[in-house]
Amino acid sequence: MQYCLKLPKTVYSGDNSLDKIIEIIEKTGAKKVAAFTDKSLEKLGLFALIEQRLHAANVPYDVFDDLPAEPTYMAVQNVIDQFKKENYDLIVACGGGSVMDSAKLASILKTDEYGVKELLTDPKRGHKTTPVVMIPTTAGTGAEVTPNAIVGVPEQELKIGIVNDDLISDYVILDAELVKNLPRKIAAATGVDALCHCIECFTSNKANPFSDIFALEGLDLILNNIIEACDDRDAMAAKNAMQVAALYGGLAITASGTTAVHALSYPLGGKYHIAHGVSNAMLLVPVMEFNEDVLRGKFAEAYDRCYHGSDRLETVEDKSAYMINWMGSIVEHLNIPTSLKEFGVPEEDLEVLVESGMKVQRLLVNNKKLVTPEDARAIYRRVL
Which residues contact 96 (CB under 8 A, 6 or more apart)? Predict the structure, then answer.
């Protein structure tokens, strides 16, 4: 078995890490910056923190913020078309997964020969032309370090991941100030997304010593910090721990890969526009229970790494059950929806979901247990 680990050039974290923007601009000699964000962050005043540093660096910049949540590939292409009109030599992306993924795609799509649509079928065509600084405003997606960009494809009622090593960012800045006032609903959904990254990568067919290092450490940080980070606005240590854990989850993806939770969640976002973290949260326990008989030892290993209480369980079976219940209790505590009924999804759409979910073989092949259409049907039926 061969495996590898792909990393950004530099990652900054800790107090006042946003000041590193100035240092990066000086180091790269950037003359004009493209700043990717979204309008909601501007309204919250978070993007102002970035603008302060851009002003301090005395560099001209343009803002690209016309991007909807869960964007289609056409929406991303529209933003990139605007980006290509000027000659920017540095991209600074401040936002959640959609903002960062769009910025990453812009960094490899300065050409007019092809666009996002062409990368859906031939992702390796893109090549890095502009360095990127990633500044996540959620502690969840891990997009700041992955070689992936996720876009909606309406004609297939699906989300598709564009995977290209050139999408890996050059610089990452983690500053807990940016997640301090994140609404609990968003913090919860993105945090559980990171949880899924870690447990899926740890249990993936592609899991290896590199991915396990980050997946297990990220899982430990998330399980023991996510509730405090979401419930307590001032729990800055827990929020920083979640930021680091989200990055670890992203690194685990680069070395391993997600499995059936993510695969079966893509139709929920593509067809019904359910937030990615919410759709993953819905499917997390059903998929883990489906996999339990072949992953019992892995779940027990995760328990040994992540549970720090004195009343420790002894048997592999008990440890495995505890881990699944622990993840389920987090989803319940954070009030994340666990039924598609809350989104108006009718039961007669079951077969459409199964057909769409089974198309995501890129991720389903990572699942330790073979997922048949009948299995997918049973999993979806649990959340309908």
Answer: 38, 136, 137, 138, 140, 141, 143, 186, 190
**Residue-by-residue DSSP string for 105-167:** HHHT---SS--HHHHHH-GGG----S-EEEEESSSS--TTT-SEEEEEEGGGTEEEEEE-GGG
- The 10 Å Cβ neighbour count of residue 224 is 15
Helices (H) and strands (E) counted in the chain, each on its own, are: 16, 8
Euclidean distance between CA atoms 239 and 178, whole angstroms: 10
Tens of pLDDT, residue by residue over 93-128, are 999 999 999 999 999 999 889 999 999 999 999 999
Q: Report the pLDDT averaged over residues 230-255.
A: 95
β partners of residue 93: 36, 134
Domains and CATH numbers, the chain: 10-178 (3.40.50.1970), 184-383 (1.20.1090.10)
